[in-house]
Structure formats: C-alpha cells, structure tokens
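Entry:
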Amino acid sequence: MKIIVRISLYLPLITLVVAMGCCYCYSQEAGKGKITGSIKEKGSGAPLIGANIYLKTDLTVGTTADLDGNYSIELDPGKYTLMYSYTGMLSVTREVEVKEGETLRINLEMEPFSSSFKEIVISSGRYDRTPEQLMVTTEIMRKDLLESKNVVSVETALDQIPGVNILDEEPQIRGGSGFTFGVGSKVAVILDQMPMINAAAGKPNWDLIPVENINQIEVVKGPGSVLTGANAMSGAIYFKTEYAGEIPKTKVRLYGGMYAPPQDTSRKWWNGNNYISGLSFLHARHLDSAKTIDLVFSGMGNFEQGYMGAPVEGNYTIPDSTKNEDVKSNRLRFNLNLRKQSQKIKGLAYGINGSFMKELAPTVLAWFDDSSGFYRAYPGTILLKETTIFYIDPFVNILTQSGLKHQLMFRVMDEDVDQKNGKKPQAHTTSLFGQYLYSKRFSNIKGLYAIGGLSGQQTYSNDSMYTAGGSTKNEATNVSLFLEVEKKFGKELTFLVGFRGEYYAINDEDQYIVPLIRASLNFKVFQETFLRVSYGQGVRFPTIAERKIRYGFGAFGVFDNPDLEPETAWNAELGIKQGFKFNTFYGYLDVAGFIQRYDNTVEYLFGFWDTTGSVNGFGAGFKFVNTGKSQVSGLDISLTGNAKWGKEKAHNINIMAGYTFVLPISLEPDFIYAENNSFFDLTFSYDSTSVNPESKILKYRFKHTVKVDMEYLFKGFFIGVSSRYFSKMENIDNSIYKFEDITSVNGKGTPTMLYRDYFENHNNGNLLFDARIGYEFKEKYKIALIANNVLNRSYSLRPLKPEPMMNIVLQLVASL
C-alpha cells in the first residue's frame, strides 16, 4: 500500500484558529424584538426549506427557514437590513426597524434566477453562498442561456464560460490538462451531488445530463478535491436540476436546421443538405393534493448526419468499409426525478432519480488530411458506437428542527457499448456508488457551519479494449471521507478549513491512501469589495483505461501503462471580487491570480510506443505517461452584469465575459519518462518529444482565451451574440510529424497523415462567433434562429481533428 502525504505545515495552526473560533458561544440578551414570517417560491407557492436569513452588515447573525418555510429571528432594538437567500433564487433585502418586545412579520415570495444575476446564490461548495462570500473563483451560467443557444449537449455550453475550454469533449480549466480524448478527466462533473464520470475511463457522461431541466451551472476553478473527490484536480462543474413547483409546468422544444457547406467546397462530403433535428420536453407537477409528491419527467431526442464523414474510398492496407450513411448520430434520453416529503415524519424526504439513454454516434480520432479530406476520417480511426446506459439514484434526506441535515444517496449505473465497425470490441461497465452527507449551521456557536461525510464507489469493467492485464475484466475501488468547517469572525472575515482522505485501488494491485487539505478565507474590505485567499490540494488516480487499455485503431494504437502513478497537485489563489453599479448596470468584476503545481504530471502523449507490432504495424499511438513536475500559473478576469432601464424596465442586457492567461510549463524538461523505442531508439522526455521545447510550454494548451456573451431583450424580442478567442497552440508532440513522415513513404495503401503544414501555417489563433435572434409571445411561445460559427471558419483546436463548420437551427419552444 502506498501512502502519499501532502499535509501542509500550516494545518496545526489552521486547526487551532478554527478551534478557538468555535469556542465563542452565542448568548441571548434580554430586551429583544422578533421578526417572523414565511418564505415561498413566487408563482408555485412552494415553501423554501432551508432559506437563509441574515443581517447584511453581519453575516454571523441569522437563521434558516424550517420545513414549512417559516422563520424567526430575535434582534436588539434598532434598524437593520435583512438578506433573504436561497439557491437558484434572486436574493431579497428588506429594511426593518426592530422594537423591544414587539414582533414584526415579513412574508416573502422569492423569484427564480433567470436573466438577472444580482444576488444569486451558489451551492458549489455543497452549501449556499452569495457571490461575494465565495472562497474560490466560481463562474455561473444562466439556465436560460442553454435554451437561447439551443444546447443539446452541455459541454458545448461550457465552452462559453471564461477559463473553461472543451477540447474534443475534454474539459480544461485554466490549462490544468492537455488533450486526453476525454479519458482521465482532471475536472469533476457533478449532477445534483452525484458524479457524472464514467468510472472505468474517467470520461464525463455529458449526454446523460438533462439540458432541458438544468436550473443552474456552477464552475469552480482550482482543486475541489476536499468536497468533490479525486477527479476535481483542476476544478469542478456542478449542475442543479429543478423540482416541481405548485403550478404544473410543461415545456416542449422543437428544432431543425443544417450544417452549411464549408467555404472550401472541396471539403463538402455529403450530397444535398446535412440536416439537424430534435426535440426535448419537460413535465413537472405535484402528484397529490397535499403537494408532497414531486414529479419531473423529461427527455430529448437528437438526430443528425454529423459534420465528419467516412474515409475517402480506397484500397488501404488497413481496410475501412465505413460509408457516409454509417456516421449519423442519433440519441434518445429520458430522465426522471421523483420525491416524496413525509407528512408523518417532519423533515423526511425520499425519492429516486434516474436516466436512460440509447445513442448511436461516431467517434473520430483523426482527419483524412488537411485539404479536401479535412472533414473526413482517416482509415481505421472512426468508431461507430452504440451505447445503452442507465442509472438509478435512490436518496433519503432528513432535516431536523435544529437545522441538522442528513443526506443518503446511492447509485447503480450500467453502461453497454457495442462497436459496429472495425474489430467490434464490446464493453460493459457497472458502477455502484454511495454517499452520506452531514451538515449543520450551529445556532449556539456564532457563525459556525460544518459539513462532512463519506463515500464509496466500486466499478466493474468487462471491456475487450482493457486487456493489458491478461483479462477483459477489471475492478476499481474508491473510498473517501471528508470534513469541512467554516467560521465567521465578526462582520468581515470568514475562514474555512477542510480535510479529505482517499483510498483507491485497481484489481488490488496497487493501493493508495492520500490525505488532502484545503484552507480559505474571505475578507470584506469595503462594502462591495471582497478579498479571498485559498490553498487546496488535489489528486487524480489512474483509471482502468489508462493502465489497462491496449488496442489498435487503424494505423493508430492506444497503449497501456501499468506503472502509471497518481498525479498530485496544490493550488494557491489570490482573488478580489468588486461589485459595482454604473447608472442602471449592476455587475461583478472578479480578478484572480493563481498558481498550480503538479507532481507526476500525467500527459496523453503521441509516440511510437509498441516495440512488438502486436497492436498495429507502426506501433504509433497514444499513451498515458507520468512526465514529472509541471506548473500552471496565470491570471483570470471575469465580468458578469445586468442592466434594466426604460419604462417598466423593458430594456434588458445581460453580459458574461472573461479573459484567461495561463503559463503552463514543464519544471523537468529533461526528465526521461520512457526509453528503448525500437523505431528511433530515443529516450522520451519533454525536450525530446516537443515541437517547441525551447518554450517549456506544456502540450495542447492555449495561453490566451477570451469569452464573451451578450444578450439584449425588449418586450419579448431578444438578440444575442457569443464570441470565443483561442490563441495559437504553443506546443504539440513531435511524433505527429514523424508519423506523417512514415506514412508519406508507404504508398497508396497508407495515406499520408498530413498535419505539419497545417500547424505551421494555420496555427495563428481562432476567433469564433455565434449569434441568435428570437421572439417570445403570449408568455408561452418562443421562436428563434440560432447560428453557430457564423463566419463558417474551418479550424482545428486539437491536432488532427476539425471543429464543426457553421450550423443554423430554427427553434420553437412552447411552455404550457
């Protein structure tokens, strides 16, 4: 068993400070007045259980709403500003005057967060905070933006968030990872506090996330491993869904459109039009007259030919019979959320969430060439996969009158993958997950909140690609426990400390125990100025795929690394959030400097790894390798804002914008991480495998990115524009060049894998634009025209893979 110790020297001091703070007890004084009332959701009338009520000038004084949405708070006589907040709702302020011996009643109806941003509540740390109370940089995406952009899979929306890049379905946050083809993600993906990662491969299950029922998206930048787990090495993405309100709701979305022909018409591989079509629906309601049973049923279907075509027909050394009609993409998914609130036992709620999806979709590893075959696959590198996947998540929640909350969550996820072409490998993965959470806001210890818990996951994989260990069957075990404590000191300072212990093993071969810590503080400098400092540790364990995969895809291969070690990291951040008002514009400006240091950095590297030729003839392909120490530092700037003006505030503008600079460097460029290659007899290091070794820049990263989204609304009419800028990719594996050289001398049986000219002459950065225009009428119906990549650029972000050309969609939405 291996124990990786990364405990900060400051932990004893941190623990002492918190312990001293916890010893400060709250004592009531005589001569107080009282404020009571109820808090409900506007429109539905549903009680907002656990809503927070506190003084704006002293966040340590407050209470929470009970199971019926009622609250009561005692204060000394005087004038106060009360804040009311709840996750996903617009916060409310009330000016009050408390008189001795008197009771003031204030009933509120809170509005769901939609187009405004001011005073929204964030729960990414598993408990609620307003933006200015955050301990780390966190970005929020409005749920209405998903519909406005006609998002059919959530990763396409995430690419618009500042500091987040989606590189061929792989999430990057602040340059914390390169290209890994989605395997071994360093970003945690969480839906309603449950992981949405394929446990065998560490790949996000984007298509399972119900875009039609997303209430809020939160992106936490920097390690979130203490609360979220091992995948959250460079950040975490949280999705929250909605439950039924008092009024039944039904929403249906229909859309249809097409991919436009590329500007270079020689790259068009289809005949006629390349259509896109689909629909989604959501129905939410109470099933009983007492309104204790909530049902949300949703689903979607997406049908398209896709923008990547089959290889050009030919007599290849590696046969590929895939036709253009084979590469279509069809997806059908259904989601269910069912919750029962007990009438016999106050505070008890239980239920079940679930999802089922059937999908037929192609996966393309590499293009045919950089000219007329830009949007075609290289022979043998297109995978036609039919996926059937479902999960069932039963849960039990208990909220006591004292504010103590228990949450029990379980999951069974089953996935079958049947490949329809090539060697036709089969894969079956079953994952069992359980989690217990405990949280409490202490009323007798002023300003103290604690959350803790434990979780366990067991994964069973039977995959014909994962055979390096001598069998198709593999197992992985992960067990963890954690505790996080937050304490407010006075009116300005909030301090947080957390600990997590992780246990991990694959097939009981190597077992790891890793302790992690986190510490943060938030200090209110001025009325709308908040300074934060944070330090956190992260870990990512090798997945079954990284250690056990050994498989050929045409001329490529993906190779196992049984000696792959976990990578660990620490992150430090100094940030400031400034709230401001300019005329009718309200906004937050957030600036953060960060540094993240990695040990045993894992990179997905292209090379000639196979000395036996057992996987493919060239022995070329990808492999996960520990490449030594590395560092990512940089600057993150974001702006969110909203302006309303005119009669009845009819004019409305929303802005989300950001700039991210990262400097990802190798700290051990001459570290040899592999050797004895039979083709070139080279040692493998950063210096020897890089196209641009002088820069020391890590591979597959962009130093500069800019993201902007703006939308204007007026009496049902709306128009919006999104833009994204990616600077040039500074460095890639030079083995891609070598593979081009080899394929260029093998005749017509092996087409030349062209990339060098494209990288050297077209790697100048990419500026992209999307646009949308629409009209909402009768408060029920909406029609919109949405265009992505409106300039119809042909471009590539990751080597050997193009991004989609322009596509235009007409959307119809009905809310019933």
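The CA atoms of residues 486 and 729 lie 41 Å apart.
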